[in-house]
Amino acid sequence: MTTTVLRSVLPTFGVVLTLALPAAATAAPSGGAQAFSEPEVERIDCVTPTSESCAQGVLPAGARVRLVGSDLRDVRRVVFRGADGRRDDAAARVSHVGAGHADVQVPGTAQTGPVDLVVRGGEPVRAMPRVTVRPLVPAGQVDGHVFPIRGKHDVGQTETNNFGGGRNHQGQDMFAACGTPLVAAQGGRVRMAKANHARAGNYLVITGESSGLDYVYMHMQAPPTVETGDRVASGQQLGEVGDTGNANGCHVHFEIWSAPGWYTGGKPIDPLPLVRAWDPDH
Ligand SMILES: [Zn+2]
């Protein structure tokens, strides 16, 4: 991205937040021949416009934002800490890193709280004491779900299996032997039940009853036995892990979309922090 582009983008969507620097981040290290400067964030700008307003000091989850500051070159991830404890932490990889800025998409599961920077080879650095986030997933919705694979599994945590990985991946690929039961992460109504799609194979989309989120299960071994409009309960078996469609090995490609849903105005959310929280083996 060039400076020209930035100039044309930023004034349009404006500055979101202007927060004071935390004292810790301004302390200069002393001694040593190699001066190491901790990254500092002066403010967070909205880059991508969203339907929600960015102008009221609130970052809408899913929006692309730009951290503006100094010594940001080695920042690899931004962690939205949310409440105390690690359960609702939501991390996102940065892109377009330069000394003075780092871009990140606010994770769908991000909650209001401190924001930390993870620097290559270093401890996390507090960037902002408190950032207000409008989450796509309401606080508390991290719980109240069932892990979608009932049986031995591997939450494939590699670049290509993760959300946003190669091919603009919109879900999380989770591996299990073909035939392992797939269950509803949250009960609700079947929005789409399709057999033998060229890429998705046999797949299902279910709108969660209490969350309003859409949950998508692809590459199932057999055509769905439920139909569009059917109700399913949380934990109800939906089928089995398979490798139908364009699948490399037995796995479920699992997506989560915010309301109003899958390809109907919602946004795909990174499922990884959620499935990790639901995973009984984690
Ligand atoms: Zn996938």
Explain the layout of strands and helices.
Elements: H1 3-13, E1 15-18, H2 23-26, E2 40-46, E3 59-60, E4 64-70, E5 75-80, E6 90-93, E7 101-105, E8 113-119, E9 125-131, E10 133-134, E11 154-155, E12 172-175, E13 181-183, E14 188-197, E15 201-208, E16 214-220, E17 231-232, E18 237-240, E19 251-257, E20 268-269, H3 272-278
Parallel strand pairs: 3-10
Antiparallel strand pairs: 1-2, 2-4, 4-7, 5-6, 5-8, 8-9, 11-12, 12-19, 13-18, 14-15, 14-17, 15-16, 16-19, 19-20
Bound molecules: zinc ion.
Which short descriptors sum up this protein?
Immunoglobulin-like; 2 domains; 4-stranded antiparallel β-sheet; 20 strands; mainly beta; binds zinc ion; 3 helices; disordered N terminus; 282 residues; Glucose Permease (Domain IIA); 8-stranded antiparallel β-sheet
Measured as a percent range, the helix fraction is under 10%
Major sheet size, sense and barrel closure: 8 strands, antiparallel
Number of domains: 2
The outline comes out as elongated
Radius of gyration: 20 Å
Structure description:
This protein is mainly beta. The chain folds into 2 domains: 3-134, Immunoglobulins (Immunoglobulin-like, Sandwich), CATH 2.60.40; 154-278, Glucose Permease (Domain IIA). 8% of the residues lie in helices and 35% in strands. The protein is built from 3 helices and 20 strands. It has helices spanning 3-13, 23-26, 272-278, and strands at residues 15-18, 40-46, 59-60, 64-70, 75-80, 90-93, 101-105, 113-119, 125-131, 133-134, 154-155, 172-175, 181-183, 188-197, 201-208, 214-220, 231-232, 237-240, 251-257, 268-269. Strands 11, 12, 14, 15, 16, 17, 19 and 20 form an 8-stranded antiparallel β-sheet that branches. Strands 1-2-4-7 form a 4-stranded antiparallel β-sheet. A hairpin with a 3-residue loop joins strand 14 and strand 15 (201-208). The radius of gyration is 20 Å and the shape is elongated. It starts with a helix and ends with a helix. Residues 1-34 have low confidence and may be disordered. Bound molecules: zinc ion. The site of zinc ion has 4 residues, from loops.
